[in-house]
Design a protein that fits this description.
By secondary structure, the chain is of the alpha/beta class. The chain contains 20 helices and 26 strands. It is globular, with a radius of gyration of 25 Å. Bound molecules: 6-O-phosphono-alpha-D-glucopyranose.
């Protein structure tokens, strides 16, 4: 996720800004840039690390000497590849306004077209650049405005999320900032102010901060700051005293990245859907595949290839696409697909799913599918990754960088993308427009429901306390929840080193039931759906063999509470939406069991975040 730093004061801005960017490196990024006001605007941007940018400044950065105000950014690509030109800041053509942006401008395409029609020339492929030209246009059309007013007017045209910092050589003694959906904090120093997307770059300078709320702007000068709403109403803001360490801030106040990433999911889910789920129109808009949608709908068969957690998302994708689009789907481990001379032709569509976009087996499967003439679509989290580049078209998950080795938020983001894809493929085929509308509404309700589940974190930790010394665990689910059972088992084994297996619940009697005794925890995903009575019988079977049952059940399900030793209740949803909810308590359960056992959950032994070897 992108990072923002701003400084205005009496000290050299450039070294402070670079240092601030380094504090934000933990968020993950692919390029960095800086702009300072030094009589005129000076700007440098570089693909790669902050170190790269620093080297560039050592060579040519003396122009920044003496500048005491500026802004800097680390970019995690969403629109446009990681590159020098797509890095922030973005400048207007006359080079007197510079802007950095976190978030996504949803309506950037229409705004960009409008600006191009008016003669604006774009220097990048980003959505963010429209903002600087928009401000420029408004300011030029009414020179009586100041920067603040021009920004305010520009924001009226913008749909989406933003955390913004803007400077202008026409008003060199201020930084204008604005927030909607993307955090910003102002650090209050002595005759100097810091602005950042979180407190990490600020904490070493001051512990006094003001958090901007959504819909607020601030005008920050060397001696003062004023917070107003975007509608220009001045706001009284409380100054908060920071009392935590840098390390804690990097993890967003959480003990581990994994826990932070689990808790980020409601926000991430909203980001994944942003601009794509069009509730009013009852449809999804998937820009990355729009030109290929008709061809995709003609596919005789879809083959999904992936590894690890992404493979589990692929299994859920199979259920979703078959349910909604009635196109036959096969899901293959990328490693199996590539080594078994698969039957694939130009009538097939191959979907490769990869958080990192670099997994060696998935990449090889992609290349093989292409060789065999299939159309290959990618679902990746890392923009500009090899898989994203080599696929014909695709969709990014926009989950932000995932640091914890065990995938959590990237998984649920993949499932949402697959859900939207299944909806796009189903349009006009098998389910009615009304049904699509209802499912999409349900999908948009998922983030709030996930937040409710996260509220049960402490209760889940207490259950984990009882099971932390288990040596084995069995995860059972049916239908849409079967792949979640596999994912739950994988989460537990990879971070706690407890042997765990996932099974379709009905398969229990074909083998795993032999393992059940009083030491065997069995985690049932037993939400209400058309197999509910069957799963109740499976629970009875486990209980009668003294197995210890933890059940994930729909709110108010008395039958399950009567049978299970522990129940984690989750809000009700229809089957296709359910995996997005049932996955959450299993992530938390695995996390707590592992931490209670003293395991390093962010870096489990022998595992790598991205497996680029075969
Ligand atoms: C590794 C990671 C897993 C991940 C898998 C596939 O094994 O530890 O968390 O699911 O690779 O990675 P990808 O980046 O292709 O999704």
């Amino acid at each position: 996720m992108c990072g923002i730093v701003g400084y205005i004061g009496r000290r050299e801005a450039a070294p402070l800004l670079l240092n601030g960017l380094k504090r934000l490196e933990y968020r993950g990024y692919d390029s960095a840039g800086i702009a300072v006001l030094n009589g005129q605007m000076e700007m440098f941007k570089k693909k790669g690390s902050v170190g790269n940018l620093e080297e560039e400044l050592n060579v040519s950065g003396s122009v920044m000497l003496g500048a005491t105000a500026g802004i800097a950014h680390t970019r995690w690509a969403t629109h446009g590849d990681p590159s020098d030109r797509n890095a922030h800041p973005h400048m207007n053509v006359s080079g007197d306004i510079a802007l950095i942006h976190n978030g996504i401008v949803e309506n950037y395409m229409s705004l960009k077209q409008e600006l191009i029609d008016q003669g604006y020339i774009f220097a990048s492929d980003t959505d963010s650049e429209v903002l600087v030209h928009l401000i420029d246009r408004i300011w030029k059309s009414d020179p009586s405005l100041d920067l603040e007013a021009a920004v305010r007017q520009a924001l009226r045209h913008v749909e989406g999320a933003y955390g913004l910092c803007i400077i202008s050589s026409r008003e060199p003694d201020k930084i204008v900032v604005a927030r909607k959906g993307s955090p910003l904090v102002i650090g209050i120093g002595d005759g100097e102010y810091f602005i950042a997307s979180d407190a990490a770059p600020i904490v070493e300078h001051t512990n006094k901060v003001v958090y901007l709320s959504d819909g607020e702007m601030a005008i920050v000068t060397r001696d003062n700051y004023t917070v107003k709403t975007i509608e220009n109403v001045e706001q009284e803001k409380r100054i908060t005293e920071l009392d935590f360490s840098l390390e804690k801030i990097e993890k967003g106040g959480y003990e581990h990245f994994m826990l932070k990433e689990i808790f980020e999911q409601p926000e991430v889910m909203r980001d994944v859907m942003r601009g794509r789920v069009r509730l009013e129109e009852g449809r999804v808009q998937l820009g990355g595949i729009a030109d290929y949608l008709d061809r995709l709908k003609q596919a005789k068969r879809i083959v999904i290839c992936a590894c690890g957690t992404s493979w589990h998302a692929g299994l859920i994708g199979e259920y979703l696409i078959e349910e909604f689009a009635r196109i036959p789907v096969e899901v293959d481990y990328a490693s199996e697909f590539r080594y078994r001379n698969p039957i694939v032709s130009s009538e097939d569509v191959v979907i490769v799913i990869s958080q990192s976009g670099e997994t060696a087996d998935t990449l090889a499967a992609l290349r093989l599918a292409k060789e065999k003439g299939a159309m290959v679509l990618g679902i990746c989290n890392v923009v500009g990754s090899t898989i994203a580049r080599e696929t014909l078209c695709g969709m990014y998950t926009h989950a932000g960088p995932e640091v914890g080795v065990a995938s959590t938020k990237a998984f649920t983001a993949q499932v949402i993308v697959l859900f939207m894809l299944a909806m796009a493929l189903s349009k006009g085929r098998t389910i009615s427009q009304d049904e699509i509308g209802l499912y999409l509404r349900e999908l948009t309700e998922v983030p709030d429901k996930v937040a409710q589940i996260l509220d049960q974190n402490e209760a889940i930790r207490k259950i984990a306390l009882e099971f932390k010394d288990a040596r084995n665990a069995l995860y059972l689910g049916r239908g849409f929840n079967f792949p979640v059972a596999l994912e739950g088992a994988l989460k537990l084994k990879e971070i706690s080193y407890i042997h765990a297996e996932g099974y379709p619940a009905a398969e229990m009697k074909h083998g795993p039931i032999a393992l059940i005794d009083e030491d065997m925890p069995v985690i049932f995903i037993a939400t209400r759906d058309n197999t509910h009575t069957k799963i109740l019988s499976n629970i009875e079977e486990v209980r009668s063999r003294k197995g210890r049952v933890i059940a994930i059940a729909s709110e108010g399900d008395r039958e399950v509470s009567r049978l299970a030793e522990h129940v984690i209740f989750i809000p009700q949803a229809s089957g296709p939406v359910m995996p997005l909810l049932t996955a959450i308590p299993l992530q938390l359960l695995a996390y707590h069991i592992a931490t209670l056992r003293g395991c390093n959950v962010d870096r489990p032994r022998n595992l790598a975040k991205s497996v680029t070897v075969e």
